[in-house]
Specification:
CATH topology: Neuraminidase
CATH class: Mainly Beta
CATH superfamily: TolB, C-terminal domain
Helix content: 10-25%
Strand order of the largest sheet: 18-19-20-1-24-23-22-21
Strand content: 35-45%
Largest sheet: 8 strands, mixed
Low-confidence stretches: 1-20
Radius of gyration: 22 Å
Number of strands: 29
Number of domains: 1
Distance between the termini: 52 Å
CATH architecture: 6 Propeller
Shape: globular
Length: about 375
C-alpha cells in the first residue's frame, strides 16, 4: 500500500509540474508534448529541400572565426562573430557587403557583442553590446543611435512594438527578478516577465540562442522544458515537453553544479536541460538541446523526435553544426569547418559531383571561411 501511495504522489507531482508550466494564457493553451525517441540517421531530403553548397567570401575584411547568429533580411545575411567582435554582411551568393567592427568607447562603438536582431519594421540592425546597451544601425551597417541598459543581458529579439531581452538567473552573485525584460519601443517602458528558476549551474552557458528570430519569436531557458512565445508584454507557454527518461532529475535542480560536472553528468546519463536555436515551419519546430542531434517537435501529432545524424545525399556525408537562419523563410545552415576540408575532399574523390562544387572545394584552404550546406525546411 505504501508503495502505491508513493507512486500516486510522484505521478501527482509530475502532473502538477506539467500543468504549472503549461498554464493558460489569454491567447492559447500550452500543449503537452511527449518525447518519442530517436532515429539514428536520416537523409537530408526527408525534411529539407533546395539544398546547395557555398561559402562566404574570405577577403581580409570578411574572414570570421565562428557563426554564432545568422539573420537574413531582403537578400542580405547578417553574420555575428562574437570572438572577433564583428558583424558581417553578405549577399545570398556569399559576396561580402560590409563589416561592422567598431571596438572602442566612442559613438556606435562597443567592447564586445552579445547578440543581434533585425527590426524589419524600423529597418534597423540592433546590436546587444557591452557596456550594456543596444546599438541601432541601419541595415547597411551605419550607426544611428544607442539605448543604454541598466542590467546585463545575453540575447535579444524584436517585433513591431517591443524589444525582448533574456537574462541569466544569476548575475554578479545575485539572483535576477525575471528571465525576460520587455522594452516598449516608443516609450522605453520596461516590463519584467517570467520569474527565474533556481540557478543549478551559475555562469554555465549552453551553446545556442534562447530567443529565436523566426516567423514568431520563441523563448527558452535552461532547466525548463517549456517553449514560450514572446508577444506584446506576455511570455506565453506554448509547448511543455515530457522528456521521459531524458528529463533532468528534479532533485538535481536544487544542487549547485560546476559547468564541467553538469555537462559530464548529462552526457553520461542522456539528460536534457536546455532547448535552443528554434526554427519554425508549418509542420513544427526544429531545435537543438545540450545533447547531440537535431530535434523536431511536430505540431500535428504532439511528439518530439531526435535525428542523431543527417546525411547529405549529394556527398553521402553527415551534416555537422546545425544553425537556423533568422527570418521568415525556414532556412537552415549546416556549417562544415574549413580544417575538415581534406577529409571531405577525400570522401568525394571518386563520386560524381557537379563541376561547380569541385571548383569551389578546390579553391578553399584550411584558412578559408567554412563550407555552408544551405537548405529550406519543408
Amino acid at each position: 500500500m505504501k508503495t502505491r501511495k508513493y507512486l500516486l504522489l510522484i505521478v501527482g507531482m509530475a502532473i502538477s509540474l506539467i500543468i504549472a508550466s503549461c498554464k493558460q494564457s489569454s491567447e492559447v493553451n500550452c500543449s503537452k508534448i511527449r518525447y518519442t525517441g530517436n532515429i539514428k540517421s536520416v537523409a537530408d531530403t526527408t525534411f529539407m529541400k533546395n539544398g546547395n553548397i557555398f561559402t562566404f567570401e574570405d577577403t581580409p575584411r570578411s574572414l570570421f572565426a565562428k557563426i554564432e547568429r545568422i539573420l537574413k533580411n531582403d537578400g542580405t545575411y547578417y553574420l555575428m562573430d562574437k570572438s572577433m567582435k564583428q558583424i558581417l554582411l553578405y549577399d545570398t551568393l556569399g559576396h561580402h557587403i560590409n563589416t561592422i567592427h567598431n571596438v572602442g568607447g566612442g559613438a556606435g562603438e562597443y567592447i564586445s557583442i552579445r547578440d543581434i536582431a533585425i527590426d524589419k519594421y524600423k529597418k534597423q540592425l540592433l546590436i546587444l553590446a557591452d557596456p550594456s546597451s543596444i546599438l541601432f544601425y541601419n541595415l547597411d551597417g551605419i550607426y544611428e543611435t544607442k539605448l543604454r541598459l541598466k542590467k546585463s543581458y545575453n540575447c535579444i529579439g524584436v517585433d513591431r512594438d517591443y524589444i525582448y531581452l533574456s537574462q541569466s538567473t544569476y548575475v554578479n552573485n545575485k539572483p535576477e527578478k525575471s528571465s525576460v525584460t520587455i522594452i516598449e519601443k516608443q516609450s522605453h517602458r520596461i516590463t519584467e516577465e517570467l520569474p527565474p528558476l533556481f540557478e543549478t549551474a551559475p555562469y554555465c552557458y549552453a551553446q545556442g540562442m534562447p530567443i529565436s528570430s523566426t516567423k514568431q519569436l520563441y523563448f527558452t531557458r535552461r532547466f525548463d522544458n517549456t517553449i514560450y512565445r514572446l508577444k506584446g508584454i506576455e511570455v506565453i507557454p506554448l509547448y511543455a515537453i515530457n522528456w521521459q527518461k531524458k528529463s533532468f532529475p528534479e532533485d538535481m535542480k536544487k544542487r549547485t553544479l560546476e559547468c564541467k560536472e553538469l555537462n559530464k553528468y548529462c552526457l553520461e546519463n542522456s539528460y536534457i536541460y536546455s532547448i535552443t536555436d528554434v526554427q519554425e515551419t508549418n509542420k513544427g519546430l526544429y531545435f537543438r538541446t545540450n545533447l547531440p542531434g537535431l530535434y523536431f517537435l511536430s505540431k500535428l501529432d504532439g511528439g518530439v523526435q531526435c535525428y542523431d545524424m543527417i546525411i547529405n545525399t549529394m556527398f553521402n556525408i553527415p551534416l555537422p553544426n546545425y544553425l537556423p537562419v533568422g527570418g521568415n523563410n525556414g532556412e537552415v545552415f549546416f556549417v562544415y569547418p574549413a580544417h575538415l576540408l581534406p577529409m571531405l575532399k577525400q570522401q568525394i574523390v571518386n563520386k560524381e559531383v557537379p563541376k561547380e562544387m569541385k571548383t569551389l572545394l578546390n579553391s578553399m584552404t584550411e584558412e578559408s571561411n567554412p563550407l555552408i550546406f544551405r537548405y529550406t525546411l519543408k
